[in-house]
């Protein structure tokens, strides 16, 4: 089932996610719905807060980047089958010289900005079977994970912009929260005027 994606301005996007366990209600259906929702919106990642659930869960599928000709063959190969579920994740290390990459977000449609992040991360997480992992990721894979991880920490990519950039997009963000944006996927707007 395709779920509506929560738009910028909804308080759930600012909540730090709660840890979950394997007895989380209807977990398998939630996982399936999240993947379906992400694919319907043509996203490469989706975090539970973006569908209104303040829990520590996100998923990624970076395969659309595997065709990016600006990436090396090695990076393309790495991203080709990069599909993962992250539950109760904690980034334990972020290293390397920060690099800029133009990011967008399904909760903030029509806004794209360069964001600086470290190129290498070490993350502890549980997979969809609640098996524990500790892994290192680099480059674009790390970038996608960092963006989704921020969601479960109540952080949006726009928080990482300079004060000037934030001022420049302030009007766009206000319009998004009111539902004044054209999107081709289901969304829930916090401040949209109710139809009578």
Instruction: Give the strand content.
Output: 25-35%
Query: How many domains in all?
Result: 1
Which fold does the CATH topology refer to? Peptide Deformylase
Structural class: alpha+beta
Structure description:
The protein is 27% helix and 29% strand. The chain has 196 residues and is of the alpha+beta class. The chain has a single domain (5-188), classed as Peptide Deformylase. The strands form three sheets. It has a five-stranded antiparallel β-sheet with strand order 2-3-4-7-8, sandwiched between helices. The chain has a two-stranded parallel ribbon with strand order 1-9. Pfam families: Pep_deformylase (PF01327).
Key descriptive features of the protein:
196 residues; alpha+beta; 5-stranded antiparallel beta sheet; two-stranded parallel ribbon; 4 helices; 9 strands; 27% helix; 29% strand
A few lines on this structure:
With 196 residues, the protein is α+β, with helices and mostly antiparallel strands. The chain has helices spanning 27-40, 73-80, 139-152, 163-178, and strands spanning 5-6, 45-47, 57-61, 83-95, 99-105, 108-117, 120-126, 132-138, 187-188.
Helix-strand blueprint:
Blueprint: E1 5-6, H1 27-40, E2 45-47, E3 57-61, H2 73-80, E4 83-95, E5 99-105, E6 108-117, E7 120-126, E8 132-138, H3 139-152, H4 163-178, E9 187-188
